[in-house]
Write a structure and sequence with these properties.
Elements (H helix, E strand, L loop, with lengths): L7 H7 L4 E10 L7 E4 L6 E4 L5 E6 L2 E5 L9 E6 L6 H10 L7 E10 L4 E2 L6 E13 L4 E6 L25
Parallel strand pairs: 2-4
Antiparallel strand pairs: 1-2, 1-7, 3-4, 5-6, 6-10, 7-8, 7-9, 9-10
Length: 175
């Protein structure tokens, strides 16, 4: 009996041992001619279908993706280290800086289910997608570029009134 993999929980709970997760990132900016598309664990690169139905190529590069901590708010973050030897990302960032743009590059994380026994996708489209991330902070050296991709802060707006002893004099007895 074949197991259908529809989402990330199916991959972890019900899939065959031959099913591997392929992690990809796509980094784009309006000034760049094409987005950077990287797959971390397939040395030949892959042609994969996006959630829109478009088939694109992801190049292989040494890539380390650390998902942010679990929290009870709406913020998501990824810490990404791309082993580009300082050749891929720095020229693109220089292009953004020279144009004096305030726009941050966008990051989309996708995970695919790949059957290594048949060398084909177990599901055509991604089983996990994280969108709406923006490059917030970046550092680089001669070996790699590391950056944090985060959602814009969701919980920065104060609502309601402050709960202070000045506003609520009965609080003074508790202090």
């Amino acid at each position: 009996m074949a197991v259908t993999i529809d989402d990330i929980k199916d991959l972890h709970l019900d899939s065959a041992p031959s099913i591997a997760a392929l992690e990809t990132i796509e980094v784009s900016h309006s000034l760049w001619p094409t987005p950077i598309r990287i797959v971390t664990n397939h040395a030949d690169g892959i042609d994969a279908m996006l959630e829109t139905g478009e088939v694109v190529h992801f190049e292989f590069a040494p890539l380390l993706i650390n998902k942010g901590k679990t929290s009870d708010d709406l913020d998501q973050s990824l810490n990404i280290t791309l082993g580009d030897l300082g050749e891929v990302v720095p020229p693109l960032i220089k292009q953004i800086r020279s144009s004096d743009s305030d726009e941050h590059p966008q990051v989309i994380y996708r995970q695919y289910a790949y059957d290594v026994a048949t060398m084909s996708f177990a599901k055509d489209k991604p089983i996990d997608i994280i969108k709406g991330l923006f490059v917030e902070q970046m550092s680089r050296d001669h070996q790699a570029t590391t950056f944090d991709a985060k959602t814009p802060d969701k919980n920065t707006v104060a609502t309601g009134r402050s709960y202070t002893p000045d506003e609520y004099p009965d609080l003074k007895a508790l202090l």
